[in-house]
Amino acid sequence: MQQLGAKATFLNSTLDADSAYEVEQQLLRGDLDLLYVAPERLMTDRFLNLLERSPIALFAIDEAHCVSQWGHDFRPEYIQLSVLHERFPDIPRIALTATADEATRKEIIQRLALENAELFVSGFDRPNICYSISQNQGNAKDQLLRFIRNEHETDAGIVYCLSRKKVEQTAEWLSSKGLNALPYHAGLSTQVRQLHQQRFLNEDGIIIVATIAFGMGIDKPDVRFVAHLNLPKSIEAYYQETGRAGRDGLPANAWMMYGLQDVIMLKQMMETSDADEAHKRVEHHKLQSMLGFSELTTCRRQALLQYFDDHMEEPCGNCDTCLTPVETWDATVVAQKALSCVYKTQQRFGVTYLIDVLLGKDNDRIKQFGHDQISVYGIGKELDAKQWRSIYRQLIARNLLSVDIEGHGNLCLTEQCRPVLRGEETLLLRKETKQAKSQSRGRKTQNNFKDANSTLWEALRACRKTLAEESGVPPFVVFHDATLMEMLDRQPQNHEQFSKITGVGKKKLEAYADAFIKIIEQHINSSTGTSSATDTMEETLQLLRSGMKADEIASHRNLKPTTIYGHLAKSIELGEVELQQVVDLSENEIKTIQNAFLSFSDEDRKLKPVYEALDGAFDYGLLQCIRASVN
Question: What's the farthest any 2 CA atoms get from each other in the chain?
Fold first, then answer.
């Protein structure tokens, strides 16, 4: 906000006494536009007395879902914020959150006394995020490494794990593979956590491996991926955590791998928590909804939006189930049995009891209710209890059933289930397989700017980093990646042209335009056209001819392998170097890859379809060079 010209500051424990006193004086004098404080500080008598003596125009309560005891991230301090309308009845209040279903919204309104307030609910859709979920078959870390290397080698990202031990093991393992991975969890010292968070915010290409302790208030816009190595405890948690990717609007990935052990561990955590039984039931059913969402065969985005009472008419085309449809089976008859059992038992029971009825279990509770005499008793013996649980999870995820989480977790029929019950609609559910096909899911992305103009791109990023360090702010505060990309495309050469770049306001035009224009002019002046390689490409070629491999050149020049492969591919295309000098592959392997490129009619000969057609056997850098030999 200060970079944008606003008079904004914060008050927290990182400030020394003199700095904190000066902020308080600015507040009293009315010199501030914005002051950021945590609820814990706000609730102290000293700070409330300070507010009573200050000219306050508005209280803005961020992350307002923390008010809700039924939500996924309840914080008791937030409930005490009701003091605001009691002590300051004439000061307007606004509550904001990106993650709240209808029940949570109702509780926010009630607890913060906002009954007469306007309610604004914008869409929950994040169309630039590609969602991808698969089951862990024992190779999750290897899959994660391949995903990062092939799609996000130079990018910032977050990897979420369920335990502190797994955070540290994963961060250490990724670091051993040459990635800049840092751990973050509540068991680390405050100094280490602050250091790792600042590196993540201020440096490019840092990967944070974290528990859910990391993320609240993190607004780094150029996070290109969020990965989960364990199942989140709820759809709300999943939505909020994945929502930390792609805040600049550019393509990003939400990648997850989960296993049965995650479910067991989460259930154990729930059972041993200090929460009362009502809250444990809520947490249990939110976990079941998350499991059902993970097992979907239909568009994930549609189901995610439906959960938050938002709607999308057509499948999104940018999630794994849209891009690579899963194998399904006709589950219409078993779904009818499952739904009929809910109906015949008066919609009063949870999943475990309903499965017992379907399996014809001989127990006192079923006899007590007389359900051993109804038509659905024992009609589901063709499936076991585990399979029926999967059926019910998927029916809940499809919104054919709902869970009464404020009651005792009983299942209820929805209007959407009528066509299935009547046999008017065929229902296809996910067919479980022993081994999910390992591949990076599709994402709508454009990385051409990193390949075709890698030299200028790196120069612009270096300029941004220098300016950020001079100002004492993270690089994205200077400009987002999207703004740099537009500079790359337009290459403005004066202030008027620079002012037309998205994200450039009056203050940033004055502060930064000259520095970036100078970089662009240097690039234009040093360019030698398309007939020969640039100076930096020539340096790469000289090292190649000296006997170095691509990875060794990257290490020697302190550049990313993707940059070096970009140089080599361009050199192959220009006839500066032979393909065999670059790639260490057999003639048969080269021929196989060349034929794969030729089999696609796409004039651009994109890398991703070939990468997937070859089951990920060859890295993108090699494919880029071989594509150059085909073109």
Answer: 87
More confident residue, 611 or 72: 611
Sign of the four-CA dihedral 119, 301, 386, 369: positive
Homologous superfamily of domain range 8-111: P-loop containing nucleotide triphosphate hydrolases (3.40.50.300)
Angle, to 10 degrees, between the axis of helix 561-573 and the axis of helix 550-557? 120
User: Tokens 């296809």 appear where?
Assistant: 428
Task: Write the DSSP symbol of residue 319.
Answer: B
CATH level 3 topology of 328-430? Arc Repressor Mutant, subunit A (1.10.10)
- Looking at the chain, the domain(s) classified CATH 1.10.150.80 span 448-630
Residue 544 pLDDT class (50, 70, 90 cuts): confident
- What's the rounded Cα separation, in Å, for the pair 347 and 407? 12
Please tell me the CATH superfamily of domain 129-276, with its number: P-loop containing nucleotide triphosphate hydrolases (3.40.50.300)
DSSP 346: T
How far is the C-alpha of 610 from the C-alpha of 626, rounded, in Å?
A: 11
Distance from C-alpha of 590 to C-alpha of 94, rounded to nearest angstrom:
61
Report d(CA 523, CA 491) in Å as an integer.
9
pTM over 0.85: no
Neighbours of 303 (CB within 10 A): 21
Rounded CA separation 11/36 (Å): 6
Any idea of the CA torsion for 442, 445, 448, 451, to the nearest 10 degrees? Answer: -60
